[in-house]
Design a protein that fits this description.
heterodimer, A: 156 residues, mainly beta, seven-stranded antiparallel beta sheet, six-stranded mixed beta sheet, 1 helix, B: 477 residues, alpha+beta, SH3 type barrels, 3 domains, seven-stranded mixed beta sheet, 14 helices, elongated
Chain lengths: 156, 477
């Protein structure tokens, strides 16, 4: 199964295009909203299983979502529909190898796991935000658990 | 984390999942782009380029784009609920995993067009289900026990409602599966909400209001009236939107019903009317209104039809309503209204009837006069007790015909015209234009059959509403 996972990961490599100052709002099927900042070099790829948002700065990193988890994508804050009043949208900003997460309300730390379930790193949340430096982490898919949700980063 | 890995692997294993349906919604048009494979941007992000296999590149100005739907645009609420975390109890109940608590029981309510909002209490909320409510009361705590045949464990704990402190497990506090099922069935019904313009009610008839960002059920409101400020209010942790405007809200506390009973409310808002409802059995039998030649058992059976309240223990009286399935409304005249009705000879106090009967016993005369006084008094009382719950069934600004109760003591029912004002809970009833005082409207609940006093131990409860009226309702028959 692991081989299959990494084969799929290996396929996820496409050229980038410019898109300045974009914010992607993903309404998730569980009712939450996730906001990905796409300052530059961004493109979104649609695969049978995955929605991949290419990191704006460093093409080594992609943010992955399982299609099954995503309800809608828009580029302005959703006005209606699914929303989480207790936990406003989580904002992810991936700048080079630095992942900043804002809007964290329900946890005191953020954990990073690999696909085998091993805990790789724990970072404390301060002022509802957390910054993760991904450079020291192994390549492959990283699962970041925050606010009872997960975001998946593909490090190539 | 062990839960995350299987989830990821199981999704990747869904090879048959195949192509993702993608719908692009613009201001003017919807595109079905199920073979889209990439989205890029041009003009510094001002234009979105959707790359598709069959239609090539489609350019959509960002200003025109509304949103892109993946999967089904109408994700079912149930699917969303099943993906929630910390909601294992509700998930178990709604997915038919609790023996003797069939999920299908709730489906009719969940799918009702009237039910627009459903609270999904999270597992924390199930730790604090009110059970016996007094200054020192009890709560029921329900925990998820996955893997067991009965996947829930329910226990009663001592609880100080004034201070909000949960204490030790109550003596014999472990609830049987049957007891847990009864409590939960009733509780879940009270999480399903029907909304009117300004008000909301659960399908079991309890009021739910939104106040300062939190919801309050009838139970929470009663607690606040008693200045028990430590009662958990209902906060929305997460909100899920479904089709047809339905919303599921994950909450950190449960909506509860009123804990008040009919007798208590009448005692508070309409004591004179309550006095009329306290029918003296001895008088009915003594004066021959009920055939006193019958066997004692038959007399008792007949009396059941003439008695509004059955005395239980201490100050506990059960309103003798006919069914758990039919709500009721008591339009209780104020003391002043009763005084006026007495003055007009529309009704008699039982003391007055007893006095007249005693006079006949001493001086001689026909008991028929007494029987007529009794019948008139019964008719008066019954005109003020109606089938259906006015708060739930009469929408603001609407006029609804309700039928007065004919179940107790026989007689002719009266059709009442009940109008609700559009912007308040003032009800105007019948030709007499009796009006309710919106500050004296209470939800009440009443057990029927041989149920003990605990309001949370059974779903076999009638739900009613009692309100005080400024005038008595006149006889229109």
């Amino acid at each position: 199964m692991k081989k299959l996972v990494f084969c799929i990961m290996a396929l996820l490599s496409y050229a980038s295009a410019q898109a300045d100052n974009l914010k992607a709002f993903l309404k998730m099927c569980d009712g939450t909203v996730q906001q990905i900042e796409m300052a530059s070099s961004s493109q979104i790829e649609l695969h049978p299983f995955l929605l991949k948002i290419q990191a704006p700065v460093d093409p080594e990193y992609d943010v992955l979502f399982l299609f099954e988890d995503v309800a809608t994508l828009s580029f302005e804050a959703p006005q209606t529909g699914i929303h989480a009043p207790g936990a406003s949208a989580l904002v992810y900003h991936l700048d080079a190898d630095r992942l900043t997460i804002e809007g964290i309300t329900d946890c005191s730390s953020v954990q990073v796991y690999d696909t085998s379930g091993s805990l790789l790193r724990t970072e404390r949340v301060q002022d509802h935000a957390c910054q993760l430096v991904l450079s020291g982490l192994p390549k492959g898919m990283l699962v970041v658990k925050v606010n009872h949700q997960t975001i998946k980063i593909l490090k190539q | 984390m062990k839960r995350i890995l299987p989830l990821i692997l199981s999704v990747f294993a869904l090879n048959a999942w195949g192509q993702v349906p993608v719908q692009v919604q613009t201001q003017s048009k919807n595109y079905d782009l199920s073979d889209a494979y990439r989205i890029t941007f041009e003009d510094g992000g001002a234009t979105q380029v959707i790359h598709t296999r069959s239609q090539g590149e489609i350019r959509v100005p960002m200003s025109d784009l509304k949103q892109i739907h993946f999967n089904d645009t109408t994700v079912s609420l149930m699917d969303q609920i099943m993906n929630l975390e910390n909601c294992e109890i509700m998930k178990a109940i709604l997915s038919d995993k609790v023996p003797n608590l069939p999920a299908s029981f709730f489906w009719a309510y969940l799918n009702s067009p009237s039910v627009t909002k459903v609270f999904i209490p999270n597992d924390d909320a199930f730790q604090m289900i009110p059970y016996k409510v007094s200054a020192i009361g009890e709560v029921v705590s329900v925990k998820s026990v996955p893997g067991q045949t009965f996947p829930l464990k329910a226990e009663r704990y001592m609880y100080d409602f004034e201070k909000g402190l949960k204490g030790r497990v109550a003596i014999n506090g472990k609830l049987t599966e049957e007891e847990a099922v009864k409590i939960l069935q009733r509780l879940i019904l009270n999480q399903m909400v029907i909304e009117n313009q300004d008000n909301a009610y659960t399908v079991a008839g309890s009021e739910v209001e939104k106040c300062d960002g939190e919801y309050r059920g009838a139970y929470q409101k009663n607690a606040l009236n008693k200045e028990w400020e430590n009662i958990p209010m209902i906060h929305v942790v997460q909100s899920l939107s479904g089709i047809e405007g339905k919303t599921c809200m994950v909450t950190d506390a449960c909506a509860h019903e009123s804990i008040l009973r009919t007798y208590e409310v009448l005692q508070e808002i309409a004591p004179s009317f309550l006095s009329l409802m306290k029918v003296p059995k001895d008088l009915l039998v003594g004066c021959g209104y009920i055939d006193n030649a019958l066997d004692p058992d038959d007399i008792e059976e007949r009396l059941e039809h003439f008695i509004f309240f059955n005395h239980q223990v201490e100050n506990l009286y059960r309103f003798n309503w006919c069914s758990a399935k039919v709500g009721y409304t008591i339009f209780a005249p104020s003391d002043e209204a009763i005084a006026e009705a007495l003055n007009n000879g529309d009704v008699y106090t039982w003391d007055k009837i007893q006095e007249e009967y005693d006079a006949i016993m001493i001086n001689g005369g026909s008991e028929k006069v007494i029987h007529e006084m009794i019948s008139k008094t019964f008719a008066f009382i019954k005109r003020h007790i109606c089938f259906r719950n006015a708060l739930v069934e009469v929408a603001p600004g609407e006029n609804v015909q309700m039928v007065s109760c004919n179940q107790l003591s026989g007689g002719v029912p009266q059709t009442l015209s009940v109008r609700r004002e559009s912007n308040s809970d003032v009800f105007e009833v019948s030709a007499s234009r009796a009006k309710s005082d919106p500050n004296t409207i209470f939800y009440v609940r009443e057990p029927w059959g041989n149920i003990k006093d605990n309001v949370y131990s059974s779903y076999e409860y009638s739900v009613g509403v009692v309100m005080r009226m400024d005038k008595a309702i006149v006889d229109e028959n």
